[in-house]
């Protein structure tokens, strides 16, 4: 370090004229000096100046949090969220405006981190939000597993027909994009039923269930499930009683 008469102490990284430059601490950039809200989900503006989401509604939403765990069902979360939001209707305020404001409040942990990491303005409609949410949390592995449960469905020995039907419908509702049409679903169910229930379906269909019209076949299955549930088919199977006859399952 040198000293020049009349100029004071010489700085090695000056501006070339020998005058001292303004210094900045090396660690100055290690902490943010401003904050901008991270908002990947951007609700539309609301013209109604009296618009307010009540605290009670916020509490309801936050009591049904989605964490992004493998054990959680993202479709169930969307169903429940939609039901809660349907409780709030405000004149002049769109569905997008309400749901996009509330939805981030329903997310926690991994799901909350996902929402915060979205680039600003990525989502501006409720449909976009649902698509992005399902793309993130409804994995291709979950889809493959549920499609496999549907295509390889087998009724368990200890299941009534009603229980088997509810389980089968559960797989299809958990994976609405399964890709099977109703003809394939009914055929799969029929082939996976225990023999005594296939016989019931055939008997109620004049010999062959697979010759039924699709809508009639669906209704027949529903009727048979209701009857087995109402009349305690499980107890009859346990005690060795004969299944009900054709007249019990005919279309109503």
From TrEMBL:
Would you indicate the residue range of the signal peptide?
Answer: none
Q: Name one Pfam family in it.
A: Retrotrans_gag
Using the record's annotation, list all stretches that form the Retrotransposon gag domain: 101-192
Q: Which InterPro entries match?
A: Retrotrans_gag_dom (IPR005162)
Which superkingdom, per the lineage? Eukaryota
Q: Where is this region: Disordered?
A: 1-47
PANTHER family in the record, alphabetically?
A: CCHC-TYPE DOMAIN-CONTAINING PROTEIN, ELEMENT PROTEIN, PUTATIVE-RELATED
Name the record gives this protein: Retrotransposon gag domain-containing protein
